[in-house]
Design a protein that fits this description.
Helix content: 10-25%
Strand content: 15-25%
Structural class: alpha+beta
Length: 282
């Protein structure tokens, strides 16, 4: 289950209580999901780059309909990557439905917090605020909305500019780029740190993903959400034309991508080593 931090102080468009994952969804968590619902994997929740990429963390063995999945050494607590926006929704549905095992259908991945109508399509939801982005009333887990993600990352009562920081590390100064030990844990724990600018060299890579939360409180927002700056970009619900929103920068970007003034977008079918996600809930 995701670790959550919760808050309820109204700010701007976010005038209700909600919770957000303290950490990005990890390979351990995603592999558990795959082993529960992807023995056949008709909706391609697994990308083979998770195995072949040095930043990826999950292997697959066997043949459909008896696929099985395992986590690579030292990668269990790293953020899952090579997940598209629809994969993230299906993970949220699986949590919403109580983490069941079985085929990918309305009781496991295709219904619940969101209603998937095809491999890469989602129906409008009936949530009065977030339904246009696909969320349904009664969602127990969901992909954060843009405003929800933004508040969790940058808000702090009394922060320097209108109670918002420029960076999600409780600072208006650019974070120190993280370095890493041989296991991929952030090694230079400071008061303002993020895995960016390819500083975390390990596993033979010039920069790589790092263990979620390993930067300590210096990598956390006011609300205790870690790595909202750097490590991987994170999907959110926001619909922007035909794209979906994402925020936070990744392990190789400059610190400017981590700022509150910077947002990003991508085709919701995109799967690459840059993008992961975290979940939210009531």
């Amino acid at each position: 289950d995701p670790d959550f931090t919760g808050f309820d102080d109204p700010v701007g468009a976010v005038d209700y209580s909600y919770r957000i994952g303290s950490f990005e969804v990890t390979n351990d968590q995603y592999a558990e999901f795959l082993n529960a619902v992807a023995a056949q994997d008709n909706n391609a929740l697994y990308d083979t780059n998770m195995d072949t990429s040095a930043e990826g963390g999950i292997t697959r063995s066997g043949e459909s309909p008896t696929f099985s999945y395992a986590v690579k050494p030292d990668m269990g607590a790293k953020p899952v990557i090579y997940v598209n926006w629809y994969d993230a929704l299906r993970f949220c549905n699986w949590l919403h439905n109580g983490q069941p095992s079985g085929a990918q259908d309305a009781t496991t991945t295709e219904g619940g917090a969101y209603t998937l109508t095809g491999a890469t399509s989602v129906a409008a939801g009936d949530d009065p605020t977030h339904g246009a982005n696909g969320r349904n009333v009664g969602a127990r887990f969901w992909l954060p909305g843009e405003d929800e993600w933004y508040k969790a990352a940058y808000h702090e009562p009394g922060a320097s500019t209108n109670s918002y920081w420029l960076y999600p590390t409780r600072s208006d100064s650019a974070p120190t780029p993280a370095t890493a030990d041989v296991f991929g844990n952030i090694a230079n724990d400071t008061v303002n740190i993020a895995n960016c600018q390819s500083g975390a060299d390990w596993n033979g890579q010039d920069g790589n993903v790092t263990t979620v939360g390993s930067g300590g409180l210096g990598s956390a927002s006011y609300y205790g959400a870690f790595d909202m700056g750097g490590n991987v970009f994170e999907w959110n619900e926001e619909l922007i034309g035909g794209d979906r929103g994402m925020r936070g920068g990744r392990w190789s970007t400059g610190s400017d991508f981590l700022r509150s003034s910077d947002s990003a977008r991508s085709n919701p079918s995109s799967e690459n080593r840059s993008i992961g996600f975290r979940v939210a809930g009531p």
